[in-house]
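Report of the visiting student (M.T.), summer placement. My assignment was to run the structure pipeline on a short list of targets and document each run. The first record concerns Bifunctional lysine-specific demethylase and histidyl-hydroxylase.
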Amino acid sequence: MPRMLPRGLSSVMLLGCASAALVPAPSSRALLNPAWSALRPRGAKMSAAVQLEDIKAAPPPALTPFSLAEAVSIQGFPELPWRYALRNLVTDETFLEQGWARRPFKLKQEWEFAVNAYTMGDVERDVSMLPAQFVAHGMQWGNGIYNKPMDAGFSFEDVSRTMSGATVVMLNAGFIVPSLAKVSLATLEATRLPIWLNVYLTRPGLASSTQLHTDKQDVLVVQTTGRKRWRVYAPPEPAEAAELDPFARGKGTDQMDASKLKLLVDTVMAPGQVLYIPAAFPHETDTVGETVSEKESSVHLTIGIDTHLWGLSWAQACATDAFESASKCARAEGTVDLFKPGIQPLLRKARRWH
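After the run finished, the structure tokens were exported:
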């Protein structure tokens, strides 16, 4: 995987660079999340010899009776396994040192509690709880692809009809749907970072479920029903599109070319499987090939960890500190280079992309 250049004041020259924000230095963990080490399960040991794909985060069978009791007590949605698995994953030493913000990977261990945790039946019950602007699908308009929200007063039948030709997304469902809010809360408690959760609905046979693009968030993809193929690539070289936000490539009129990228992951997600994708890593999905014979629609949860959106990254801290230090030095020494016309707007723009 190509390494990307550091970001700081130098990002004025290379606004497309993303990797320093993606790869926190060891000393940055307390800055990003001071409580991570405290959240590691008691007795947990460093797992440097474990491969990322081999991380075992799901609760052992011994917890099953507790899960059943919890499901009965909270109206059918077992929150305990989610809390257990998410905490174990994000506090795992291998994940922190090798995976987080560095490399996409798919867990070998299935999260059995996630199988059918959210189905099309649940969508039918819940989707009308969301405002129309939160239920959308991608559409071609001119030379670009954009999200088109549902019309006011939409119904599940409208969603079902739209799914005949496009993936429908329930944006921000983790803020509104009670059962999904429990998953969001479990992730928030595990990471101590801002969280959002979307639900994606795709019928079998869709050649392009989502176009090749990048996002600002590190995400955990949890497949709950059906199957979907994912391809994840290494970030492109910054110089190829220095004027574009590396965290928002492939959107609008910006079209990415997969043939120019290094493929890192090519997998079909089945119910209970978990995929991690760092921010700024291009990815695309479909439901053709070996998934086309699937009878059930694909439903998956995308849990986003929002560090970059809120400036909660090591690169942002460094950029802010460097900018403020340089400003103080310039004022103290009477130099004016930092304050030439046009420089500060560029600095502000660069900082906004961290």
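Confidence is low (pLDDT under 50) at residues 1-48, 335-340, 350-354. The CA atoms of residues 131 and 152 lie 8 Å apart. I thank the supervising group for their guidance throughout the placement.
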